[in-house]
Specification:
It comes from Enterococcus cecorum. This protein is mostly helical and 236 residues long. The protein contains twelve helices and two strands; from the N terminus they run H-H-H-E-H-H-H-H-E-H-H-H-H-H. It has a two-stranded antiparallel ribbon with strand order 1-2. The chain starts with 5 loop residues before the first helix and ends with a helix.
């Protein structure tokens, strides 16, 4: 970090800001990309100021954490998922758990719809909410308390599956998550890999699998739901 001006350092690492911002799913009109880039630059400047090379942590990794942190701190103040949507998600989990305990098998979407007295579109909306909640922090989605609202910070996407699995979760949770992923179908594992490791968009995944974007979103929501349940059982 020596031998260059602060402006040169910012320009050198500016792509890190773009990288983080490009992986953020923001369903709010309060912030556009330029807003998030400006906030991210503040995080980058903070990283340049506080980085300690003696810690043996690559600057890029440290900077990404600081950039994300700056964005999270800003957007968490005003952006929350509605209590209504979270109630629907919680109702879904309860319904599926009740049905699985009663039927002793994996339940179908139709059975969940009948149990909750909702239609297929309403269930699709719930899966979309699950995808939205999970679209980045797996730890927050899988291990969060059952609060009645979820802040936008819970939707910031990790840079790779390694970040999601190796940095954010504790060792015992890591093992449980690996076991949960191992028992997923090949298709589900592929979707996780394409989304978190290869960093494909929903549209790109839909083209790879030859299905609609909405279907990819629904499948992703189901996968996260399965992971959460498997991990909770493993850690119980």
């Amino acid at each position: 970090m020596y031998g260059t001006t602060r402006e040169e350092e910012i320009l050198k690492y500016l792509p890190l800001v773009d990288r983080v911002v490009s992986r953020i799913s923001v369903k709010s009109s309060d912030y556009d990309k330029s807003d998030l880039v400006n906030i991210g630059i503040i995080g980058l400047m903070d990283a340049l100021r506080k980085y300690d090379a003696s810690k043996k942590v690559p600057f890029e990794s440290y900077a990404i954490i600081r950039i994300k942190g700056a964005i999270l701190d800003e957007v968490r103040k005003n952006s929350k998922i509605s209590r209504y949507k979270m109630k629907n998600v919680n109702d879904f989990y309860k319904a599926r758990n009740d049905l699985q305990q009663s039927l002793k098998r994996e339940v179908t979407d139709k059975e969940i719809c009948d149990y909750l007295n909702i239609n297929e579109q309403q269930l699709a909306n719930i899966y979309d909410s699950l995808h939205y909640l999970a679209s980045v922090s797996l730890e927050e989605m899988l291990f969060s308390s059952e609060d009645d609202s979820v802040e936008l910070k819970d939707t910031i996407q990790d840079e790779s599956m390694d970040n999601a699995l190796d940095i954010l979760v504790k060792d015992e949770q890591q093992g449980a998550l690996e076991k949960a992923i191992a028992i997923l179908s090949e298709r589900d594992q592929l979707i996780l890999s394409l989304y978190y490791k290869e960093e494909l968009t929903l549209k790109e995944i839909s083209e790879v699998l030859d299905i609609s974007i909405a279907r990819v979103s629904q499948l992703h929501g189901k996968i996260i739901s399965k992971l959460r349940e498997s991990i909770q059982e493993e850690l119980a």
